[in-house]
Specification:
With 785 residues, the protein is an alpha/beta fold. Helix content is 46%, strand content 10%. Strand 10, helix 12 and strand 11 form a beta-alpha-beta unit. The two termini are 37 Å apart. Zinc ion binds next to helix 16 and helix 17. Its EC number is 5.6.2.4.
Length: 785
């Protein structure tokens, strides 16, 4: 075994032992190795993808104390609680500690007992803290929420800009790992420059949060819409973001009056009130937190099921980060934003007193927000594009995919727009290009002599052609019926997977169309997201022609584009269906047991004064309610558990499950499956549901973006954990009956179900691995389970 293999195995053992995971997710392992190798590391990973583990693991594995610089005190306490629950000595150093506590922490660090020391940038700059850190044995420095360094995000913290020089004064050889959950290419550049980390290894994960459902609604009758939404999602935790403190208070009050337990959170509240409200939310004493953006940074609550933006946020960074707090456990997470153009005007007014640069920055961020809200193209594609990521197809799981605005085909027009970019020298933004195409003769255009170009005014007649398609549609009645309480649907398995529905006519035919310049702007933005144009990182708004765009000019084809939303005229829909569609997860686990486990968790959490999820997270409980672990060893195999947690919290849960199993005469699976990531449990549930509905495996694979082999592997796991799956409907399509019989007989008589051996020994003509594996599943389901 090579050295690196050996360390890899050691890391995996450590991961299992400490955190109860048997596999790393995504690039975690490479990232950890990079830090262990003493190199600088830059990690861009969306919320919920396992960012913290990237510095927690090396901190555990290395000698000395790792410093974790983190912007908020609330966040530190949360993380330290979690680490301690896993049996790791983590501490924080900040102004909330008194002198005695502070000294205790310092002594422990100097004695080499502390693996992670969380510290705010303000505390880091204090002279006596610096002196103390110089005496300590340090392993590396982690800078969490690194985007706080950049003025381009919304969380800019000037003191972050001093971090580099301070770290250097401690020890210039200390490896740095900077992490952020939000970074556009521009912010990324800024972070690297400021930390002097241009040579660092960059790990950028996809920003796609597959389980999040994005929707934007017109801001009309908003209170009614929100109350109805929460009532039909009874018992689920959610956050509502408002722009102003006053609004926060009002909405919290409104919800309480309507029988929904909600608390406010904003910077104007007394510190102790804020803390108490936050705890109440984490401890599941209230369902909804109504808050300004002051709430949530680093709040590690994994089971927030919805995030509602009451007001339009001021940037997509903010929006992405706030919505990112939904569904961190990989299960349901609905993100609903209410849009009104007045909000944009209001936000723009706030910027009045800023410096010119700040004001310009703010305006650009706001423009992106407006564009995102209004475009009819897939939200996920837009968001990912904003973060510098190309997503090759529509996601099928956002409002624009499920309830599309009217579509139109364009080919000549796309070519015209690309040529306009090219002919003007790739130095202008969409607005200018649209004006050139529409033949607008303003000072700006004439000063560049763009009125002399042959494309000038060529776009004038275009959008008139697009109207005919909507003509024969019926008028959409305003669905403005009186507000009535929805029946509480909690507890009913939601079995409908999201399926594209026919367009419910987002627009009515008599509506005013967008003005043609705006339509051209929309077209240019859409083809940028589709990759025909690309954004200039250095200069905001400027687009260039991409390779794809150039080859389109040579060989064009029709492209389907979407009309923009017109929120002024969109009717409010009955959102009942959306909620069903959005909450894709049905329940494949034992719900009664899950409820019992949840109550037990709540009780223990209360006794220990910890948030419930610090004990065990929902996916772990779901897994327990699927596999019924009744020994310590079995319990330690549950994802997210690990022996440390079994020792700390496991006993009462094992007792409960044992009692339950006995009382209900449940046979527990003898062979416990080790699954790789928390997210897998969601995929499993999805597969079980789809198979029940006899959906073809290749279709399921496509839905989940998995290969056939991966899908089969998931199904094998499901079977090995004791769940019966009937795949006959599919197997009968792909394997001849005779062949099926032969394979079945082989497994009946074989000594082992090992596939490699079967391939060698089974003596069946033209047999493929896939066929063998499918038949093994059938065999196991019918014979073994
Ligand atoms: Zn979509």
């Amino acid at each position: 075994m090579s050295v690196s293999q050996e360390t890899n195995n050691l890391l995996k053992d450590k991961l299992k032992e400490t955190f109860g995971f048997s596999q790393f997710r995504g690039e975690q392992e490479e990232i950890i190795q990079n830090t262990l190798d003493g190199k600088n590391t830059f990690v861009i990973m969306p919320t919920g993808a396992g960012k913290s583990l990237c510095y927690q693991m090396p901190a555990i594995a290395m000698d000395g104390t790792a410093i974790v610089i983190s912007p908020l005190i609330a966040l530190m306490k949360n993380q330290v609680d979690q680490m301690n629950a896993f049996g790791i000595n983590a501490q924080f150093l900040n102004s909330s500690l008194n002198k005695t506590e502070m000294n205790k922490v310092k002594t422990e660090v100097l004695n080499g007992e502390v693996k992670l020391l969380y510290i705010a940038p303000e505390s880091l700059t204090k002279e006596d803290n610096l002196e103390f850190l110089k005496q300590a044995k340090l392993s590396f420095v982690a800078i969490d929420e690194a985007h706080c360094i950049s003025e381009w995000g919304h969380d800019f913290r000037p003191e972050y800009r001093r971090i580099k020089s301070i770290v250097e004064s401690l020890d210039s050889n200390l490896p740095i790992i900077a992490l952020t959950a939000t970074a556009t290419p521009k912010v990324q550049q800024d972070i690297q420059k400021n930390l002097n980390m241009e040579d660092s290894t960059i790990f950028k994960s996809s920003f796609n949060r597959k389980n999040l459902y994005y929707e934007i609604r017109a801001k009309k009758d908003i209170d009614k819409q929100i109350i109805r939404y929460i009532k039909s999602n009874h018992g689920k935790a959610g956050i509502i973001y408002c722009l102003s403190r006053k609004k926060v208070e009002e909405v919290a009050e409104l919800l309480n009056v309507n029988g929904i337990k909600a608390l406010p959170y904003h910077a104007g509240l007394d510190g102790s009130v804020r803390m108490a409200n936050q705890e109440a939310f984490l401890n599941e004493e209230v369902e909804v937190m109504v808050a300004t953006i002051a709430f949530g940074m680093g709040i590690d609550k994994p089971d927030v099921r919805f995030v509602i933006h009451y007001d339009t946020p001021k940037s997509l960074e903010g929006y992405y980060q706030e919505t990112g707090r939904a569904g961190r456990d990989g299960l349901e997470g609905n993100c609903i934003m209410f849009y009104a153009h007045e909000d944009i005007i209001k936000l723009d007014k706030f910027n009045k007193d800023k410096t010119v640069t700040e004001r310009d920055n703010a305006k650009m961020l706001l423009n992106e927000m407006v564009s995102y809200s209004n475009l009819g193209s897939c939200r996920r594609r837009q968001l990912l594009h904003y973060f510098g990521e190309y997503f090759p197809q529509d996601c099928g799981f956002c409002d624009n995919c499920l309830k599309p605005t009217p579509k139109y085909k364009a080919e000549e027009e796309v070519a015209l727009a690309i040529r306009a970019v090219d002919l003007t020298g790739e130095r202008f933004d969409a607005q200018h290009l649209a004006e050139v195409l529409m033949g607008v003769k303003n000072q700006y255009i004439t000063s560049y002599e763009h009125h002399k170009l042959d494309i000038f005014g060529k776009g004038k007649n275009f959008f008139k052609l697009q109207e005919d398609e909507d003509e024969d549609e019926d008028d959409d009645d305003e669905q403005d019926e009186e507000f009535s309480d929805e029946e509480d649907e909690d507890g009913n398995p939601i079995s409908k997977a999201p399926k594209p529905k026919p367009a419910p006519k987002a627009k009515k035919k008599k509506e005013p169309e967008l003005n043609p310049v705006d339509q051209w702007v929309s077209l240019i933005r859409q083809i940028t997201i589709l990759g025909f144009l690309e954004k200039d990182i250095e200069n905001y708004g400027i687009v260039k022609v991409s390779e794809k765009g150039r080859s389109f000019l040579k060989d064009s084809f029709p492209i389907t584009l979407s009309k923009d939303h017109d929120y002024e005229h969109e009717s409010i829909e009955d959102d009942k269906d959306d909620e069903k569609a959005a909450s894709g997860g049905g329940k494949a686990y034992d719900e009664a047991l899950f409820e019992l486990l949840k109550n037990l968790r709540k009780k223990i959490a209360k006794e220990k004064n910890l948030p419930p999820y610090v004990i065990f997270q929902d996916p772990s409980l779901e897994e327990m309610a699927t596999t019924y672990p009744i020994t310590r060893e079995d319990m330690a195999q549950i994802n997210g558990v690990g022996m440390g947690k079994v020792v700390k919290f496991g006993r009462p849960f094992i007792d409960l499950i044992s009692r339950y199993v006995e009382e209900n005469e449940i046979e527990t699976a003898t062979e416990v499956v080790v699954k790789s990531t928390v997210n897998k449990s969601k995929i499993k549930i999805h597969i079980i549901q789809q198979v029940d509905r006899k959906v073809d495996l290749d279709v399921i694979a496509e839905q989940k973006e998995l290969t056939m082999a991966e899908i089969i592997e998931e199904i094998e796991h499901i079977c090995y954990s004791g769940t019966k799956l009937n795949l006959d409907y599919y197997i009968n399509q792909v394997i001849e009956p005779d062949k099926q019989e032969e394979i079945f007989d082989y497994f009946m008589s074989a000594e082992t179900d090992n596939i490699a051996i079967a391939l060698r020994d089974c003596d069946i003509e033209d047999i493929s691995e896939e066929e063998l594996r499918l038949m093994r599943i059938k065999f196991l389901s019918e014979v073994a389970n």
